[in-house]
Write a structure and sequence with these properties.
The chain is mainly α. Helices cover about 75% and strands about 0% of the residues. The chain contains 2 helices and no strands. The longest helix is centred in the middle third of the chain and has 65 residues.
């Protein structure tokens, strides 16, 4: 019995059998290219994700430092009369020699 459309032995066969094998080869090449494209896209997305993660971590750190500075300023405003008075003088809310905080 003769192999059907190249699914049997690899040698010999007519033009239809060889053409069918050629189509399988082409399909495999196209599938491989599609797979490579997906791998490339995934790698690029991973790199972009890592960059976004690094940027977010830097932003979090910057916000933590800013939050600490604001806490310090709030503490000074609530408990340091000299600091409060210096700010009022800087903002021209108190004149020279004028006593603001007691």
């Amino acid at each position: 019995m003769r192999p059907v459309l190249g699914l049997g032995k690899w040698g010999g066969g007519g033009w239809a059998e060889r053409g069918f094998r050629g189509l399988w080869g082409l399909a495999l090449v196209l599938l491989g290219l599609a797979l490579l494209r997906e791998v490339d896209r995934s790698l690029r997305e991973g790199i972009r994700g890592a960059r976004r993660e690094e940027a977010a971590a830097r932003e979090v750190e910057r916000l933590r430092r800013e939050n600490g500075a604001l806490r310090e300023e709030l503490r000074a405003l609530e408990s340091d009369p000299a600091y409060l008075e210096s700010l009022l003088r800087l903002w021209k809310k108190a004149g020279p020699g004028e006593r603001v905080v007691e």
